Here is the input.
Amino acid sequence: MTVTVETLEKLERKITLTLPAEAIQQEVTRRLKDVARKVKMDGFRPGKVPLNVVAQQYGYSVHYEVMNDKVGEAFATAANEAKLRVAGQPKITEKEGAPEGQISFDAVFEVYPEVQIGDLSTAEVEKVSTEISEAAIDRTLDILRKQRRTFAQRPQDQAAADGDRVTIDFAGKIDGEPFEGGKAEAFQFIVGDGQMLKEFEDAVRGMKSGESKTFPLAFPEDYHGKDVAGKTADFLVTVNKIEAAHLPEVDEALAKSLGIAEGTVDGLRADIKKNLQREVKFRVLARNKQAAMDALAAKAVLDLPKAAVQAELERLVEGARADLKQRGVKDAEKAPIPEDLFRPQAERRVRLGLVVAELVRAQQLQAKPEQIKAHIEELSASYEKPADVVRWYTSDNRRMAEVEAIVIENNVAEYVLSQAKVTEKPIEFDELMGQA
Here is the structure.
């Protein structure tokens, strides 16, 4: 086999492979003999089918398999000898005019780029931090109380207000015609919780039990129901029941119901603070890691392999389809999703992946076993039975690989922050939580 390598443009290369035709034919014959020993055909005893008969039926497919295998092996050997890091699958085509007794192929492919990382000491990174205030603990406590609220029916003459649970019947029509999902009976929702569109909540708020009204509702252009998005419907709504919410008192009974062993309010607040600190730590880490990665990517110079970007595009589109399917969208697998919507994200992922890999190699930032163990223990700490969660991670190689990747990213972020010009910025708890 002879090999030539040609640079086409940037990362694109072409290898010309020349193989002896005799070697191909010998392998085809060998495989056909194997088939003849096993194949069953009418009129012949097993293992006694003539080779020419087997060749008539299986010759093309066997020849195709041999060509694929031999050319694939030849390409892998040639790329390895030329020390080329191949990105994606090569496009292989047969050449005409090969020397007698030879078969020639062109393999066009991309290679991974050389990554040049600039001076990180000139990179500017904003590093955020957050304190857990008493007000944040109070708001979390209110959420916990709301999750345990009870409801009692209001008197007939009291109107629905924010926080009330209403039971209603409604029927909507567009241009006088009913539409799918536009009608329900004994439907419940909490006024002011945002479960319904604002116009719907505004119409029900202030109504009394037994009262009916008709009102127009304009569906937003981006409404998830495509059949009604951007259209205006007329709704008839009847309020059947209004129930006022009652929040539990912040006392020992609430603390015990939330699993606080000593059953004290102070213990409950301390437990909430501990959980918030854990959540804040992860969110601060994620935000600062993002800032470090952005700074790293900005300091890198490289060409992106088109094949790698295309593969990432396909993964993102497939993920979008899976999300649509999970949301119950009909025919999600056929939904038209333009790849260009995800191109910036795909290019960024590929770019960061290559840059991170280069920095990990250059600075020895691989995940250490003790780091992986510590990260899993930290993830498991918030669960009732941490040991079970640790076993859940350690029993699966794929999950362990995901943890290892996160630890490597953390190592890279820490290295970048140690080298860059870092500006510390305290931010409010609410601002951080809004970055989820």
Observations:
- The radius of gyration is 33 Å.
